[in-house]
Specification:
The protein is α/β, with parallel strands linked by helices and 345 residues long. 39% of the residues lie in helices and 23% in strands.
Length: 345
């Protein structure tokens, strides 16, 4: 018997879909990815169930509605969203007839504010075997970086360059540190080519393009840095934080929903947001930006540098706690809750 999966074409969702697929296959089912799932798939006797993994806005849910409503097989719509779907688009569709499983409580609250039904929350997860596989790359990156950057504290950004990621704030923080003459640090960038211009400055280096490396290579890169820095103001989950923690690396980030659902001030370096702004994203959703002063990142980076340089024991404890904490999101603990909606136990 097969399970069909239709997955949003984004790096993080594809990586998570592969982890879900792994668990389904461990339960004895085959998995087939399909761009579009139809009513005819619902009638296929070889198909046990169907899982959609989508962005919860009208453009991405349009072809989901009919097979979900009319189908009889076990099925689930697992969704993420970075803000509130526009009611005008949602209410003039059949989307309110669907029930969703959210990837965070933030996603759940956002969908409910748009009048949509959410029946459960299932966080994203990590795969300990993939983490172990990624560790082979740590020494490769460390050897290269230590040769090039010596004893400097190595901050790493991993992610796209779009308004939600707030790379302009990170760029400003770099300017502050450079103007103040802060020594012994470097910011490494793994992002879109468009981010290069933002970081053509002292103590910054663009090292690779987002989407150009295998998943385990990116995880290995995270494990090789001293800190991941994640300036984002708007997320549906914030997976790089969990991934870096799983690699035993503390993260500097905005302590806002949904990151605050799974992160911890105990070992990550966080700051509070000051305000919320609603930003219209193509009339599909209102992004919720959790804003903060740009200078905060610079202050937190200085604190992180100080601890790394002056208190190695404290830094090591943060790394150990981060890894231990992240392992609570082992896919074998997290995703069975999602699979129960497909009648897979």
């Amino acid at each position: 018997m097969r399970v069909l999966m239709s997955v949003l074409l984004a790096t993080s969702t594809i990586n998570q879909a592969n982890i879900i697929r792994k668990l389904i296959e461990e339960k004895g089912f085959e998995v087939e990815y399909k761009n579009t799932i139809t009513i005819f798939d619902m009638k296929d006797e070889e198909v046990h169930g169907i899982l959609w993994f989508k962005l919860a806005t009208v453009p991405f849910l349009g072809d989901v509605v009919a097979p979900y409503i009319m189908g009889k097989k076990p099925r689930a719509i697992y969704v993420t969203v970075e803000g509130i779907p526009t009611k005008s688009a949602v209410l003039h569709s059949n989307i309110p007839r669907c029930s969703f499983i959210a990837n965070s409580y933030f996603t759940m609250d956002s969908l409910r504010r748009a009048g949509l039904r959410v029946m459960d929350v299932v966080h994203h997860a990590i795969d300990p075997a993939m983490i172990k596989k990624a560790e082979q790359y740590i020494e490769l990156y460390r050897k290269e970086w230590d040769k090039k950057y010596k004893e400097r504290v190595k901050f790493l950004y991993v992610g796209r360059n779009d308004p939600r990621k707030a790379l302009n704030k990170l760029s400003t923080a770099v300017d502050v540190l450079n103007q103040e003459g802060v020594k012994d640090w470097v910011l490494l960038i793994h992002s879109d080519e468009s981010a290069k211009q933002l970081f053509k400055k002292e103590n910054c280096e663009f090292i690779s393009s987002f989407g150009s490396l295998k998943y385990e290579e990116v995880l290995g890169m995270m494990g090789a840095c001293d800190y991941l820095v994640f300036p984002s103001v708007c997320e549906g989950f914030g997976l790089p934080i969990l991934e870096a923690n799983a690699m035993g690396v503390p993260v500097l980030h905005n302590f806002c929903p949904p990151m605050s659902e799974f992160s911890s001030e105990e070992f990550n370096f966080v700051w509070e947001y000051a305000d919320k702004q609603f930003v219209n994203q193509g009339n599909a959703q209102y992004w919720i930006f959790h804003e903060y002063p740009d200078a905060i990142i610079a202050e937190v980076m200085k604190d992180a540098i100080r601890i790394f340089k002056q208190s190695k024991k404290e830094y090591k404890e943060y790394c150990e706690k981060a890894k231990e904490h992240a392992m609570r999101w082992d896919y074998k603990r997290i995703y069975p809750r999602l699979l129960k909606y497909l009648n897979i136990r």
